[in-house]
Design brief:
The complex is a heterodimer. Chain A folds into 2 domains: about 25-95, no CATH class; about 105-240, Methane Monooxygenase Hydroxylase, Chain G, domain 1 (Up-down Bundle). In chain A, about 80% of the residues lie in helices and about 0% in strands. Chain A has 10 helices and no strands. In chain A, helix 2 (about 20-45) runs antiparallel to helix 3 (about 45-70), helix 3 runs antiparallel to helix 4 and helix 8 packs parallel to helix 10 (about 220-235). The longest helix of chain A is centred in the middle third of the chain and has 32 residues, at about 115-145. The radius of gyration of chain A is 22 Å and the shape is globular. Chain B contains 32 helices and 4 strands. A two-stranded antiparallel sheet of chain B has the order 1-4. Chain B has a two-stranded antiparallel sheet with strand order 2-3. In chain B, a hairpin with a 2-residue loop joins strand 2 and strand 3 (about 75-80). Classes of the chains: A mainly alpha, B mainly alpha. At the A-B interface, helix 1, helix 2, helix 4, helix 7 and helix 9 of A face helix 1, strand 1, helix 2, strand 3 and strand 4 of B.
């Protein structure tokens, strides 16, 4: 009996020498908790709580990034950078691209399939964060445009054009990265969720919100509609199954 | 404490701890992680309707002819009136509802996502710990077999443990090759334990078993391809075949432990070579309908059987390596099996291969000189055999109505066993002898139009034919290259079959030459003629006549003669016929006599004895009593004499009844014998005094019938014998009175 106890003791001492596993588990759980807190606060317009959540997420991002630097195992580094990147995305900090780039560098050909979900997230999260920024921009410009006199609406058309172009560029980037992710060992549910977000970008944000804003600001609507039509065709060819690409895609006049 | 054990313990703890830490980290990395949703753009109805009605599929509602909501639309946007915005928003909601959709489109929400595709992910973290722990246990068990108890099962598990431990990398990274090795070792263990349970008495040392596993499986593992498609193919084949193959192999080993485990010969290396060859063959040809798993395993089993029986045959004969030899053996037979024609399917062919390997293997010491590819000889034998029988099927003969599948295998076994017992037939004649037998038999089979012989009959005929061919090579079964169908044995068998067909056609109810009788007749022909091939060839006509006469005799006198008598007569008369001496006269004489009168006074046995005497007399005095005049065959003297006796016997039985008459049964048979014996050396006198002979018989009959209280058959025969001599010496027939008869009986005449 004593022998067994000694054995277990030695085992745990040796096993627990590095506590990366616990740190990573904690970071992951913290990310989920802070995210849910932020989402709930935003939904209920609890701005102070939302701000606290953002601060927590920002701190989590910094701690995770610091831990990533210390890790020797590439898979652990990638995991910590994934936490840092997502936390930064939600805290709307400017550090996001840096963390994502450091983590993304580790996701070379060989390592991508050693942590396929983490690498896939590091690949698409910067794009999705950019889409969120654009969405916020659309909300802001739309609000400004509608709050002024009608004849001043065209003044906002250039901003609307830029926001629409940003959406289009983000779509192109995420579609190109989608191919790499599809061929990896990532869980199929990630691909499904990624495609839902691409569908949201294409069918809602570009086609309704982006074109709607151009229309509201009297921008070049026919050109935007034609751009959306071409984007739908490209996405469908890439294998995306979205509500606005189902069946025969309606072609706009003069496109 | 044992220092080695202490060191082992420390190493084990370190390994396990490392594996545990790795597992914890992997577990943390693989925890589900949150994937946030995209944020939505703030909703307002004007922005929405502008976007919605600018969609190409919706613009028709606000612009162009018939646009129902055109009044609310201006250019590319909704009119800046709250009523227009509200109207179009209501219209959009209505349109989307009608389509079953929603104006809110697709919305996303945050979800937790796992790291890996379940189909492509690595083994679970805790499975790694378990495997590492298992590896430590395997190491320990491999070094200390006693821990799992005694017996041969423990020995095998220990040997297995050592091999598996070698295959599990300390790093915990399990590549495809390692996984493959584990898998086949797993099936090896399962098969091994099954085998051990069936052979519980088998006991072997651990070292031997380890070597057995290593030498038989390691070459297979080593050949595992590097490229992915090659791996998949190789894996599919091995998954299907390694388990059954291992069982076959271990069964063979269990049945012959001294061959594989106890001698100087490295039988286990032969196992390795054969096992590798088996898998290579399976990978090359695939396992399809042409060459099934069962077929390949059957071939493997047969080859292993030869290893067990004659291990020295596998020591790389003819300068070949053992691996090359095993490959040649399996590929040679695989080629034969793949080219089989009906009725030989995979199963049947494999059984024949087993027979060939087994029989040639058992006899190979008689002709294997080290340079001969004996496995090729065995394959050629099977090919020759199956080609011949496939040809029969090709000619339209319904072989399946004659032979069942087991019978076809038995046929092959009988033939190959006898053939391989005479190595010179195989090696010196390039299979000509086998071909000779096969041509003879298959030609004869074709001649058996009425299917008078069963499959078993043919098997016995083949057995006799092959034995005779082995005993007297190059006679009955000599192949003439110019006319391969002219094989004497074939001609003889065909003669018998044709005679049988003729008899059946002529009188189906009374013919006896079919089935067992026919088989026996063919056996008699082959056995009688194998030492007299030259004579047989010259006297085929005599044989044919004999067959026809016997058929006629038996058919015409079915009351007296049956198949037994037919065979007895055939056995007696065939030798003479083969020497050109026709005994046709004897048979015709007997037939004439039997046909002339009601022959119910003599039994079949009596007639057989009469024929026997007739044959003896005919042999002693040829060309007299039994001289056959082709123009008038009824004029045979012997026939007339026998008829004379039969007539007289009939008359006296009719006149006096059997109470007073004596000339029937044994007495009549004896009387016929006396006539034949006394007249055979003096046919001319017999012919001249035939009337007196009849008078003598009639007188004697009357005398005995009148004095039946004093005289019987014995007296009749004694007086007849004495007075026949006198008749033939021109002394005539004396008056028969009591005193004179008594005098004769006393010997005074």
């Amino acid at each position: 009996m004593m022998t067994l106890q000694r054995f277990l003791l030695v085992f745990f001492v040796v096993a627990m020498t590095g506590c990366t596993a616990f740190q990573l588990r904690d970071a992951n759980q913290a990310l989920t908790i802070h995210y849910q807190a932020l989402e709930s606060a935003q939904k209920n317009a609890q701005w102070r709580i939302a701000e606290d959540a953002r601060v927590s997420l920002d701190n989590l991002a910094k701690d995770s990034a610091a831990q990533a630097e210390k890790e020797s195992d590439a898979r652990n580094k990638i995991a910590f950078y994934r936490v840092a990147t997502i936390a930064t995305w939600q805290s709307e900090s400017s550090e996001l691209s840096g963390y994502a780039a450091k983590g993304g560098k580790l996701c070379d050909g060989e390592n991508f399939n050693k942590a396929p979900r983490d690498c896939s997230m590091l690949t698409v999260v910067p794009v999705l964060a950019a889409v969120d920024q654009t969405s916020a921009g659309i909300s802001q410009v739309d609000k400004q445009a509608r709050s002024g006199p009608p004849d001043e609406r065209p003044n906002y058309a250039p901003q609307a054009e830029k926001l629409f172009t940003d959406l289009k560029n983000n779509l192109d980037i995420i579609l190109s990265r989608r191919t790499l992710i599809m061929s990896s060992n990532v869980h199929p549910e990630f691909v499904l969720e990624m495609d839902k977000r691409i569908e949201d970008l294409l069918c809602q944000k570009m086609e309704i919100n982006g074109v709607g804003l151009l229309s509201t600001t009297r921008g070049n609507v026919p050109q935007a509609v034609c751009t959306v039509y071409n984007a739908k065709k490209t996405a469908k060819q890439a294998g995306l199954k979205a509500s606005c690409t189902a069946g025969e895609i309606a072609q706009p006049a003069n496109c | 404490m044992n220092p080695t054990l202490l060191l082992f313990g420390v190493q084990s703890v370190t390994r396990l701890a490392r594996a545990g830490r790795e597992a914890l980290e992997q577990s943390a990395r693989d925890e589900p992680a949150i994937f946030p949703a995209l944020k939505a753009v703030d909703f307002n109805t004007e922005n929405f309707v502008n976007g919605y009605f600018n969609k190409p599929e919706n613009s028709k509602y606000v612009t162009g002819d018939g646009a129902v909501y055109a009044e609310y639309w201006d250019g590319f946007a909704v009119k800046l009136e709250p009523s227009s915005i509200d109207a179009l928003y209501t219209a959009a909601v209505s349109l989307e509802t009608a389509k079953g959709g929603s104006i809110y489109g697709t919305s996303t929400s945050a979800v937790l996502i796992n790291q890996w595709d379940p189909k492509k992910g690595p083994i679970s973290p805790w499975a790694r710990v378990v495997l590492t722990a298992g590896d430590i246990v395997l190491d320990y068990v491999g070094n200390n077999p006693g821990i799992i108890g005694g017996g041969s099962g423990a020995v095998l598990v220990s040997a297995y443990a050592s091999n598996l431990a070698k295959l599990i990398p300390d790093s915990g990274e399990f590549g495809s090759k390692e996984q493959f090795g584990q898998r086949i070792l797993g099936v090896f263990l399962r098969a091994g334990l099954e085998t051990l349970s069936e052979n519980s008495s088998w006991v072997a040392s651990e070292k031997h078993i380890q070597e057995l596993i290593t030498s038989s499986l390691q070459p297979v593992i080593d050949q595992f391809p590097d490229d992915l498609s090659g791996q998949l193919h190789w894996q599919a084949v091995t998954d299907a075949i390694v388990g059954p193959a291992a069982k076959v192999m271990l069964t063979t080993v269990a049945n012959s432990p001294t061959t594989f485990l106890g001698s100087d010969f490295s039988g286990d290396k032969a196992l390795g070579a054969l096992t590798t060859a088996l898998l290579t063959q399976a990978a090359e040809t695939g396992l399809d309908e042409q060459f099934t798993q069962e077929g390949l395993l059957g071939l493997y089993q047969a080859a292993l059987g030869v290893v067990a029986e004659k291990p020295q045959l596998f020591v790389g004969a003819g300068g070949r390596t053992q691996d090359q030899f095993a490959k040649d053996l399996l590929s040679g037979f695989a080629t034969v099996l793949q080219n089989m024609q009906p009725p030989f399917d995979n199963e049947l062919s494999t059984e024949l291969v087993k027979v060939a390997l087994s029989t040639v293997g058992q006899n190979v010491h008689r002709f294997a000189d080290g340079s001969n590819a004996w496995e090729k000889t065995a394959a050629d034998l099977v090919k020759t055999f199956t080609d011949s029988f496939s040809e029969i099927v090709g000619s339209g003969k319904p072989l399946d109505s004659v032979f069942s599948r087991p019978q076809l295998i038995e046929l092959g076994r009988v033939l190959l066993t006898n053939i391989s017992a005479s190595p010179s037939m195989i090696l010196e004649s390039n299979n000509a002898s086998l071909e000779g037998i096969l041509v003879a038999i298959t030609n004869a089979m074709k001649a058996d139009e009425h299917l008078l012989l069963s499959g078993n009959d043919w098997i016995e005929i083949v057995a006799i034919a092959s034995k005779e061919a082995a005993a007297n090579p190059g006679r009955l079964f000599d192949l003439d290259a110019d006319n391969p169908d002219d094989i004497l044995a074939g001609q003889l068998i065909t003669l018998v079959l044709n005679a049988a067909s003729e008899a059946i056609t002529t009188n189906k109810d009374k013919a006896v030459l079919f089935g067992n009788t026919l088989k026996e007749a063919i056996a008699i022909v082959l056995q009688s003629s194998s030492g007299k091939a030259k004579e047989a060839l010259e006297n085929l006509q005599q044989v044919q006549q004999l067959l026809q006469s016997l058929n006629a005799l038996v058919a015409g006198n079915s009351g007296q003669f049956g198949s037994e008598e037919w065979l007895e007569l055939f056995q007696s008369l065939l030798g003479k016929a083969l020497e050109g001496q026709s005994e046709q006269g004897v048979l015709v004489a007997v037939m004439n006599a039997m046909n002339a009168v009601d022959d119910a006074l003599l039994s079949g046995g009596d007639w057989m004895q009469i024929i026997e005497v007739a044959i003896q007399e005919a042999a002693a005095n040829p060309g007299r009593l039994f001289n056959l005049d082709e123009a008038n065959p009824d004029d045979i003297l012997a026939g007339q004499l026998i008829t004379l006796l039969l007539d007289a016997a009939n008359e006296t039985v009719t006149a006096n009844g059997k109470d007073k008459a004596v000339l029937f049964g044994d007495t009549l048979k004896e009387a016929v014998s006396i006539v034949l014996r006394t007249t055979s050396g003096n046919a001319l006198a017999a012919k001249e005094h035939i009337t007196e002979i009849k008078q003598l018989v009639v007188s004697l009959n009357e005398f005995v019938a009148t004095n039946n209280t004093q005289y019987g058959s014995k007296e009749w025969l004694r007086v007849f014998r004495v007075l026949m001599g006198g008749v033939l010496e021109n002394k005539g027939v004396p008056p028969l009175v009591v005193d004179q008869v008594d005098d004769i009986l006393r010997g005074g005449f």
